[in-house]
Amino acid sequence: MPDQDDTITMGVVWEAGASEAPRGRELVHVPRPAPAADRLRAAAATWNTYAALAWSRRWQTAEAYVQDPDLYRETVDAAREEIRRERAQVAKKLDKARMRKDEAQVRLLSEQLQDLERRAPSALKMDALTLKARSGRLARQAAVPAAITLGPVAALALAGMWWPLLAWPAAWVWLAVQGHGIAVAEGAVSAAEAPAAVEPAAAPPPGAPRGASSDSVGASEQETAILGHLADWDRRSAGRGLDGVTPAPPSLDSLGIRVVLATSGRMTPEKLGKRLPEVRAALALPRGVRADLSPGDVGDQAVLRIRTRTPERDMTWRPGRAGIGVDSDTGRPVVLPKGRMLIAGTSGAGKSVLLRVVMAEALCAAEPTAVVYIDPKGEESGLWRGKLRCANTVDEILAVLAELDAESDERSAIMQQRRVSSWAPTEERPRIVVVVDEGAEIVSMDAPQDDVDLIRRLQPLATMGRSRGIDLVWATQKPLLGSGIPSQLNGVMQDKVVLKTAGRNENNQVLGADWSSHELELGGSALANTGGRGPDQAPIQVWDLSDDAAVLALPDAQPWAHRPAGKQPAEPEGIPPVLAAALALSEGARGVTGPEIADGCGLDLVDVQEALRAVGVLGDRFTRDGVQVRGYRRDALEEASRRYAQ
Ligand SMILES: Nc1ncnc2c1ncn2[C@@H]1O[C@H](COP(=O)(O)OP(=O)(O)OP(=O)(O)O)[C@@H](O)[C@H]1O
């Protein structure tokens, strides 16, 4: 890079030409003030430096854009979104077909929906699409420079036109002006200054962030580095599409670093939300450090959370705990939808503890719920006797499966008679959670030739149990098709909670290539593909119910057993409690709202809506005290209750 001293050497001229030098006399040179031509040459060198700076920044940005590590994730997200969209369309059609009672369409669409639920983006296809996207980006980035460089040569050679060659100096001037702008914007040079300062400004020392608050005292080494990058925000964010973002002084709390980002100009918090990868790159956040952006207190602010710390939490399970655990980032309970579920995890991953949580939650549920525990190893069952129906030996397992089969058939017959499409649990016929521990054991015990047809008996529970209020939970150490989960069940066990798996192979088989369950910690860290959770979210920390005494302290309950239809208590006791409560609450009125029923029954609003939908009552509008409200009309509730009396 030229500097001011160069003008001295550039000003050197020969006093006499070499040819004229007298023999034996050394050539001498005398410095004199630089002529205009030399000053012009120096200025050209300066602006050339600016042009080089702009070109190098442009190149870096293009390179980062083409090699963007998040491109793969974006491709997978787009593929998933497409599947989700298709699924929503088919589900909508299915609902309509159900309302029309078009059985053929319902069957066809149900199969289509199951196919779609099973479908996941294939890793190979995602690789190919990512490569295609990178090639496209590269072609777009290279198009303009290639056209400017080669176009004039081609024009000259093919058409003899010289004037397209002017594109070269024009491009040079354009780059030089941009480079100057960059240098000025970075504060490395004033508009009038020489280019010496195009050198990047030195970063402030780590740990001395811009306006660092006293909260930053006690930062770890990693946090100190990130705080240093935050302090150097202007330089590190340049050229990343983050113009108009200004960080306020950061602070440290139990979750890590928190910093408010003010936005201005064309940047808004919403746009910034889509630029998290660029923010991560600007701050050089390590891969394992999670970060998220959320709206700030003021309209033009966003809050960046860099989760470098895990807060201490009391993770002991006790009655009243919601869901299976908490999101390890946000600390919010993770409540998964009811239904069949696959639980997988290698030895020591925390399957037994998770199953305990699932069974304890079912035992304590507000909705009438029973648990059937199929435990071929038998060790765990001792803790649950008197609370659940346990089956350990082949005979016990066959017996309980036969009872479940009969129960399922009876429920189906009752549902057809009542003209409802899903089961509303009652005290007499509760929701039944069938938990199969050590699925691989069941697979190895299965011997249809000797009438030990366990898988054949479990299959209808997996496929048809859901609408009949019977949910199968299949737990296995080896989530491999065949040995750990029978192919007959695999297709329908779409909701998965996966603890640490033995390796990538197991992870790919059970969840797919865009998940990383094999990188989880042992002892209660899990991922789930249901309940709105995805591979980008932090792991779930499962509630800790490893204490045997806590299991023994759970309330005793009458273990479930099938009572043949004739032995069921007579109607109207069979009227589902939610319907009965809705009838009582709407007495003398035109209807009752969902929240009022939820309050009256001590249930969630969603459970109330599900229960009423199951008995064929849908939400509607009615007027109350001259005001239109949304809820459940009295006449619809009465109509549903009459179906039970038939
Ligand atoms: N949610 C949890 N919270 C805290 N600790 C846990 C949790 N889950 C598991 N652990 C710890 O990990 C140990 C192993 O858990 P667990 O017995 O559930 O593993 P597993 O997957 O069933 O293994 P195996 O299949 O070999 O029996 C437990 O004894 C407990 O110390």
Automatic annotation (TrEMBL):
Show the segment(s) annotated as Disordered: 199-221
The FtsK domain is annotated at 321-508
InterPro entries documented for this protein: FtsK/SpoIIIE/SftA, FtsK_dom, P-loop_NTPase
What parts of the sequence cross the membrane? 142-163
Cite the entry's keywords alphabetically: ATP-binding, Coiled coil, Membrane, Nucleotide-binding, Transmembrane, Transmembrane helix
Keyword check for Transmembrane, yes or no: yes
Recorded hits in SUPFAM superfamilies, A to Z, give: P-loop containing nucleoside triphosphate hydrolases
Identify this protein by name. FtsK/SpoIIIE domain-containing protein
Organism (species): Streptomonospora wellingtoniae
